[in-house]
Amino acid sequence: MQNKSDYERELRNQISIIKNTVEQMKGRATYGSFEKFLKHLSTIDQAASKMAEQMNGKFFVSIQKYKKILVPYDGSKYSKEALNEASEIAKKFGSTLYLLMIVDVSAVKPPGMLLGIMIEKRLKKWSTQLLESVKSKADKMLESEMQSCRKMGVETYYEIQTGNAVDSILKFANRQEIGLIIIGSRGLSGIGKIMALGSVSRKISEEANCPVMIVR
């Protein structure tokens, strides 16, 4: 049977392992490798288990890894890969998954705009019609993905917003207290830029207050 000093020393050791691992994860911020990311989580999980064993059932230890995971989504193959990774992690750790699509009409210019042919009134009408069309398509897409994740047993929600992608994603992450962002390295092109992530992933990884995993 352990004496009190050995007991406390072991707990301090496991707490130190957890703190150091979390600091490493925060320091790296960007994860291009799913395996490396899970390795860090495994280290935390093992240390937490040892702590529970040391406490001999007297206390309940709850290590909250990533209660909420955010996946910025645009329908591209990269964002689909990001969603696949996120759903697996969420299923493993019982996390809640959030899908967020940002619609930015300013990302695409209408035909004739550069030649000065489009007057302001027609531009506004075109933008409104395009926005409604894209939102309708986005809603169906996200609803389908949400239902697929829920069938896996993952609590999932989605939201569609308009505006600048980087600002919108960061604000959403802060407001919802997101613990991890998983995002595709590239997005859509052409007319799809309205929903595309593009170079957003790099900016998010630099400015987010939580770890960011970039899926390539």
**CATH fold topology of the largest domain:** Rossmann fold
Query: What would CATH call the homologous superfamily of the largest domain?
Result: HUPs
- Percentage of residues in DSSP E strands: 5-15%
Q: Tell me the series of helices and strands, N- to C-terminal.
A: HEHEHEHEHEHE
Give the mean pLDDT: 76
Low-confidence stretches: 57-63, 113-119, 188-192
The strands making up the biggest β-sheet line up spatially as: 1-6-5-2-3-4
Domain unit count: 2
User: Rg to the nearest angstrom?
Assistant: 22 Å
Short précis:
With 216 residues, the chain is α/β, with parallel strands linked by helices.
Overview of the molecule:
- This protein is α/β, with parallel strands linked by helices.
- It folds into 2 domains: 1-63; 65-215, Rossmann fold, CATH 3.40.50.620.
- The chain is 53% helix and 14% strand.
- Helix 4 (120-151) links the parallel strand 3 (96-103) and strand 4.
- Helix 1 (4-28) runs antiparallel to helix 2 and helix 5 packs parallel to helix 6 (200-207).
- The longest helix has 32 residues, at 120-151.
- The protein is elongated and about 70 Å long.
Notable characteristics:
six-stranded parallel β-sheet; Rossmann fold; 53% helix; 216 residues; alpha/beta; 2 domains; 6 strands; elongated; 6 helices
Question: How do the helices and strands line up, and which of them pair or pack?
Answer:
Blueprint: H1 4-28, E1 30-31, H2 34-54, E2 68-72, H3 77-93, E3 96-103, H4 120-151, E4 156-162, H5 165-175, E5 180-184, H6 200-207, E6 212-215
Parallel strand pairs: 1-6, 2-3, 2-5, 3-4, 5-6
Helix pairs in contact: 1-2, 5-6
